[in-house]
Amino acid sequence: MTDTLNVDGLTVHYATREGALQALRDVALDVPPGQIVGIVGESGCGKSTLINALLQLMPENARIASGAIRLEGEDLIGARARRLRDLRGRDIAVVFQDPMTSLNPVLTIGRQMHDIQYREKRSTAEKRRMAAEMLGRVGLPDPAAKLDAYPHELSGGQRQRVAIAMAVLMRPRLLIADEPTTALDATLEVQIIELLKELQQEIGCAILFISHHLGVIAELCDRVVVMYAGEAVEEGPVADVFQRPGHPYTAKLIECDPGRMKTRVAQLPSIPGDLPDLTDPPAGCIFRDRCDRAAERCRTRPDRVALRGAHWALCHFAAEVSA
Ligand SMILES: Nc1ncnc2c1ncn2[C@@H]1O[C@H](COP(=O)(O)OP(=O)(O)OP(=O)(O)O)[C@@H](O)[C@H]1O
């Protein structure tokens, strides 16, 4: 079956005064239909660059040096601007950390939910009914009245629910959720995660879920991709990756504070050292300078080492780390 999203060998550079900054190097990932794939990595690992590339909304100094991005087999990098607008308006929905990114402050919620159904052949009354029903589904009290409210009249949690309701109303093929719960308190976060799970099962879309929270990824996702300094360094089924990581970076994240897996602390554990300079990344393993296991061999670039099932890690010692 064709993957909903397929990213292959994606390399993105930013032009900077110091030279080309290699924000993504040879990143590959697949999101199969109906699955939830998580992406985890510390700040600067390239998550935003990846999302912008997926949406083909990149800053002027960005350049896709190589690779392919396919939505159900259709190449997005070569797609025309009009086709991309169509895809973004219907097939790819995004829920951002700050719901105001996707809500228009000067339009009522009802108007925005009406507009998002622009391609549906429904009457205005029917669209309004569908919108209210969706607001009810995401747990907003008094949904019909909320349609006449402006975004600033709602709380942050309510706005995020509206953003999710709007995304789901699109019935997208791919939903990209970019840290959608990071700004919310823990109780709300649980509710939003439950909601995403439920709606995903209902509409059957694939989800790419970006988060700093290892616990949330563990709870929500089928698979996880761990990113470090512009590279996907490990990927596999969530339980397998978190229980038996094959990359020392993943192992370190988990080892630094295993309690976080349960308590969902909002930040990734900090591990000693800094990200490498991406205008001049080290040859060989990208994690070498921060890794306890670094050896002479790590001066050469590791290949993917296959572990159990569809689990791999980009480390010469993956089999030992995982054991
Ligand atoms: N427009 C830009 N020009 C130059 N460098 C950039 C630009 N945008 C991002 N970068 C650099 O690219 C690298 C990846 O950044 P990116 O924002 O994708 O990471 P991130 O994982 O999303 O981090 P965060 O969680 O902090 O947003 C970083 O080194 C960042 O400084």
Topology of helices and strands:
Elements lengths: L4 E12 L2 E13 L4 E5 L6 H9 L6 E10 L2 E2 L5 H10 L1 E4 L13 H7 L8 H14 L5 H4 L9 H14 L4 E5 L7 H18 L2 E5 L3 H7 L2 E6 L2 E7 H6 L4 H9 L3 H4 L41 E2 L5 E2 L4 H5 L1
Parallel strand pairs: 3-8, 3-9, 6-7, 7-8
Antiparallel strand pairs: 1-2, 1-4, 4-5, 9-10, 10-12, 11-12
Helix pairs in contact: 4-6, 6-7
The protein binds adenosine-5'-triphosphate.
Description of the molecule:
- The chain is an alpha/beta fold and 323 residues long.
- It has 2 domains: 5-91 and 172-272 and 281-322, Rossmann fold (3-Layer(aba) Sandwich); 92-171, no CATH class.
- 33% of the residues lie in helices and 23% in strands.
- It is built from 12 helices and 12 strands.
- It has helices spanning 47-55, 81-90, 109-115, 124-137, 143-146, 156-169, 186-203, 214-220, 238-243, 248-256, 260-263, 318-322; strands at 5-16, 19-31, 36-40, 62-71, 74-75, 92-95, 174-178, 206-210, 223-228, 231-237, 305-306, 312-313.
- The protein has an 8-stranded mixed β-sheet with strand order 6-7-8-3-9-10-12-11, sandwiched between helices. It has a 4-stranded antiparallel β-sheet with strand order 2-1-4-5, with helices on one face.
- A hairpin with a 2-residue loop joins strand 9 and strand 10.
- Helix 4 crosses helix 6 and helix 6 packs parallel to helix 7 (186-203).
- It is globular.
- The chain starts with a strand and ends with a helix.
- Bound molecules: adenosine-5'-triphosphate.
- Residues 14, 16, 21, 23, 41, 43-49, 59, 61, 278 line the site of adenosine-5'-triphosphate.
